[in-house]
Amino acid sequence: MKLDPKTMQLVQHLSTSVLVVDKNLEVLFANPSAEALMEVSINRLIGSHLPELFISCSLPVSHLYRALVQTTNFSDSEVQIVFPDGRHILVELAITNFVANDDRALILEIKQIDQQKRISKENIQWTQQQAAKELVRGLAHEIKNPLGGLRGAAQLLGKQLQSAELQEFTDMIIEQADRLRNLVDRLLGPNKPPNFQLHNVHEVMEKIRSLLELDEISQTTITRDYDPSIPNLWIDSDKIQQAVLNIARNSMQALEGQGEIKFVTRIERQLTIHGVRYPLCVQIKIIDNGPGIPPKLKDTLFYPMVTTKNDGTGLGLSIAQNMVDHHKGKIEVTSWPGHTEFTIYLPIIEHKEQH
Ligand SMILES: Nc1ncnc2c1ncn2[C@@H]1O[C@H](COP(=O)(O)OP(=O)(O)O)[C@@H](O)[C@H]1O
Ligand SMILES: [Mg+2]
Asked: 251 in ligand 1 pocket by Cβ < 6 Å?
């Protein structure tokens, strides 16, 4: 594609990455910023088939073809791209129809979402999660009180009834009320205050590993990559165990008996969690090579009752989040087909009282 020298100079200096693709999604043009973003030289980019430049992209390629056919323009504020070397980035993308070499073409403007924006997005998500949690909590309490009354009344009524046939109905009310209370209790989650003790995080991880191996007869292998320099932590080991177990069980289920789970621990310095900066944090990663988290769950993954399983409760991750919140930590997720990575960050606190 030929551009006049002035336009060329302009496009060369844009901080936005620009790619032009023809109707077969072959690259006709790329600017230096695109070269830097893709880590592929312009010469190699030109003529490449766009979908072959990455191994996964959260925007289906069919959307590009559709834009070409319908000559419509569109944009997406959050697209995840994974490159063949495993590097993954979040970008904003704008697609505009264009005529190049007398044929239909698309201009792709790509802008990487920077750290700052990611953090603000994270904060919004966290606030939303907290709001959802409050809502569920409030609702659960509102259900529990009248439910108790309902059950009590049915019990009294049952005692007055002579006929066993009619008692069946009061039994049914009691049974269903119990079922509902069970659900509500699970929604509210364990409400025991945390009991912080000094623990070696790897002992907790090893316990989880043996628990997983117990409840799984399959061939899933669990590999470990621990950082032995991690000091003992003030944690509630039961709560951390529950959090990691919930995440790892999901991995097990996603792998359906074939694949690998990796436990990784690391130290991270100077990390901000929900607005507080900590000099030292521990990272616990649970990585699997399963099918990946369904994209439609992206924004609600940690909400209670969000599940894709027929027999799922959708409470596992919401509880894990709760447990980690008790430790002033956070959970992050990145996922694409073939790779799902949950990272739990726990601040390293020197004195128990700081919790
Ligand atoms: N490692 C994973 N791989 C693929 N999907 C996952 C993974 N972890 C969680 N998910 C998705 O998140 C959903 C919610 O998980 P969770 O809160 O534990 O509830 P449940 O396991 O009862 O469905 C799951 O139904 C599944 O779709
Ligand atoms: Mg689960």
From this structure: yes
304 lines ligand 1 (CB under 6 A): no
Query: Which atom from ligand 1 is nearest to the alpha carbon of 246?
Result: 18
Percent of the residues in the chain that have a pLDDT greater than 70, as a whole number: 99
pLDDT at residue 331, rounded to an integer: 95
Q: What is the pLDDT of residue 24?
A: 95
Question: If you measure from the C-alpha of residue 206 to the centroid of ligand 2, how many angstroms do you get, rounded to a whole number?
Answer: 20
Tokens for 100, please give them. 């190049």
Q: How far is CA 152 from the centre of its chain?
A: 42
CB atoms within 10 A of CB 34: 23
Report whether residue 237 contacts ligand 1, using a CB cutoff of 6 Å: no
Please state at what angle helix 237-255 crosses helix 201-214, rounded to 10 degrees: 40
DSSP assigned state of 299: T
Structure tokens at 179: 């079922």
Which residue has its alpha carbon closest to ligand 1 atom 7?
Answer: 250
* 316-326 and 237-255 helices, crossing angle to 10°: 150
309 CB near ligand 1 (under 6 Å): yes
Q: Does residue 93's CB lie within 6 angstroms of at least one atom of ligand 1?
A: no
Coil/strand/helix, residue 45: helix
